[in-house]
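FIELD: query
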Amino acid sequence: MTEKAQNNDEIIEKAKDFFREVIAKNHIKNTEKLKNINNFNVNPFLNKYLANYLTGNDDPESISKALIYPRVLGTSINTSFGSNLQKFINTTLEGYGSTTTGMDIEFIDKIDGRKKYCQIKAGPQTINYDDVTTIQNHFKSAINLGRTNNIPIANMDCVVGVFYGEDSELSAFYRTLAEDYTVLAGKDFWHHLTGDEDFYQKLTDGIGDIANEFDSTELLDETIKALAEELRNIEVIEE
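FIELD: result
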């Protein structure tokens, strides 16, 4: 096995550990919190409609499902990944750590052979208007520091690496950055980082392998029933 292949395999194994120990455990913890109605911002105009839309009735169990499913399958897991992005970088990409202020990692681009100074973002829609200015300022500072230290850093060497998604999915904010700097999304980012054109697929497949370790159907059923019981109690008090 070549050194490059070994390093790439290590990234995949560390990514699997990260999802197992951080993302999945936080997901379970956040699911358990949903037994309490106070953890929801309930919209009284929509809760019964959504329950009927989902199950055909608006009994407490159906309302519970309409409240819990979007959080468990959408908001919770996406928020957990985003909030732990820096931890992912520090544990999974530690070999690429940066000493340059404002940069998450530094790496030798396996495609063009140039050193890259990179900020990591989660997905193609995960930055806003203010982030654009912040990222631009970090890149300008890196270029100026390189000039001071007689280290040539071109605009093309300043990279925004987007963990997942495709170029066609990038928001307008990323496209603004791409006018002056390099933005690499999903497969392209991991290809430039590792030199393996198929690494992105290998990485997502590797993380998918641990999915079989987590069957939370019982936890979901328990959470739905607990929230439904709380909704019944609230109805009794209101009556």
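FIELD: remark
The chain has a mean pLDDT of 92.
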